[in-house]
Amino acid sequence: MRVRHYCGIERIFLAAVEYRFQASGRAMQVFHGRNMGSKGQNGIAHLLSVSFARSHVFQLQRASVILSIMLIDPIQLTKQLVDLDSTTYHEASAGEFLATFLAGQGYAIERQPVAQPDPAKNPSAGTCERFNVYASMAGVTPDIVFSSHMDTVPPFLGPCREDAEFLFGRGTCDAKGIIAAQIAAAEKLIASGKRIAMLFVVGEERDSAGALVANKTPKGSRFLINGEPTDNRLALASKGCLRVELRAHGRMAHSAYPELGDSAIDKLLAALHDIQALPLPVVEGIGDSTLNIGVIRGGVAPNVIADKAEAHLLIRLVTQPEAIMDAIVRAAAGRCEVNFTLKLPYLHMRSIPGFDTMVAKFTTDIPSLSAWGEPFLLGPGSILVAHTPDEKIRKSELLECVDLYVKLADNLLV
């Protein structure tokens, strides 16, 4: 027996012992003693047993003793991930860490290459290798795949900080803490005989590039449990997403003689004014569509008529996007080029008894992972602090979600 200090809670674990027998062509038997006591956790005892063959004549083929129990500490793993700078297009450090860590836990690892964007079109593009990490037991077709994203929004906020209650830092809730909880849950579920795999992708915060790559090579899973901050509530729906880029072109001139130029900024502002005035759909029980102008760039100096200007918009959808797209094109006509660089649909998901529920006003990778099974959305942390300098996650909520992931998987696989 071994006593560990587990994130402020003393837990007693028995060593997991894995025996492999072969008798009369019978399948190998595997059993694991798991989490036999929990101080401060209602004293729940998890007892796993196996039924041995009636015949007592066994040929012992091999036996291996696994002395490491509950190696996955989701609090510590979150801290290790948050310490890594993995802003979108720069995810290599997180990918390398996860691939190495999960291989060390006995998973077969597949790296799925994801291309960097063209730097001529996207100045934020990186130069490092980008790849998704898929982890499963060798030769296993999973029933359930846990998935979340490695990338975070910029800027990197430095190493993880903590106090008695919270972890602080970029990615604590969106979504590195979620990755840690999913890995810990997968360990418990695999130990109980479930067929579980994990998929951690790049690019969710920008264009779901990693998810789109992964969707070309699904692994036959029946269910996808995606992780985003939902306050440990199961999402019944998530809004869609429409990313819009407007580019205006003009003619440069001295600002003392504006009649000799053609201001791209004036064109862009006029188009934005009309786009903001467009009526957007509202759906009862789900909410309203919202529009955010997130980026504006243009011009070279205040005494020069601008020859170029651009703006990047994001619309949260509660309906299909086609009508909104047509309205934007009409509003910008004659003033700006319009490019729709990301289009993810509104999504409805089913409820499961025994779970608190919510409607996610944000979108996820789920629409881009349509080939990975029926989707569910659940994760610890609040979206209200994601993408902010105050991003954090409550340690108790992170630990609670490990059990919620196990509960959800058990419900799906009855």
Describe the structure concisely:
This protein has seven helices and 25 strands. It has helices spanning 74-82, 92-104, 176-191, 209-214, 264-276, 322-332, 395-412; strands spanning 2-6, 9-13, 16-22, 37-38, 59-66, 108-113, 131-136, 144-149, 161-162, 166-168, 196-201, 223-226, 234-238, 240-249, 253-254, 282-283, 287-288, 290-298, 304-305, 308-317, 337-344, 347-348, 357-360, 374-377, 392-394. Helix 1 (74-82) packs antiparallel against helix 3 (176-191), helix 3 packs across helix 7 (395-412) and helix 5 (264-276) runs antiparallel to helix 6 (322-332).
Uncertain stretches: 1-70
Shape: elongated
The neighbouring-strand order within the major sheet is 6-7-11-8-12-24
Number of H- or I-type helical stretches: 7
Strand content: 25-35%
Instruction: Classify the helix fraction into a percent range.
Output: 10-25%
| Overall average residue pLDDT | 85
Question: Roughly how many Å apart are the termini?
Answer: 32 Å
Q: What is the name of the CATH architecture of the largest domain?
A: 3-Layer(aba) Sandwich
- How much is the radius of gyration in Å? 25 Å
CATH topology of the largest domain: Aminopeptidase
* Alpha-beta classification: alpha+beta
Number of domains: 3
Under the CATH scheme, which class of the largest domain? Answer: Alpha Beta
- Write down how many β-strands occur, each being a DSSP E stretch of 2 or more residues: 25
The CATH homologous superfamily of the largest domain: Zn peptidases
Can you tell me about this structure?
It is a single chain. The chain is of the alpha+beta class and 414 residues long. It folds into 3 domains: 2-66, no CATH class; 74-238 and 348-412, 3-Layer(aba) Sandwich (Aminopeptidase), CATH 3.40.630; 240-344, 2-Layer Sandwich (Alpha-Beta Plaits). It has helices spanning 74-82, 92-104, 176-191, 209-214, 264-276, 322-332, 395-412, and strands at 2-6, 9-13, 16-22, 37-38, 59-66, 108-113, 131-136, 144-149, 161-162, 166-168, 196-201, 223-226, 234-238, 240-249, 253-254, 282-283, 287-288, 290-298, 304-305, 308-317, 337-344, 347-348, 357-360, 374-377, 392-394. The strands form 8 sheets. The chain has a 6-stranded mixed sheet. Helix 1 (74-82) packs antiparallel against helix 3 (176-191), helix 3 packs across helix 7 and helix 5 packs antiparallel against helix 6. The longest helix has 18 residues, at 395-412. It is elongated, with a radius of gyration of 25 Å.
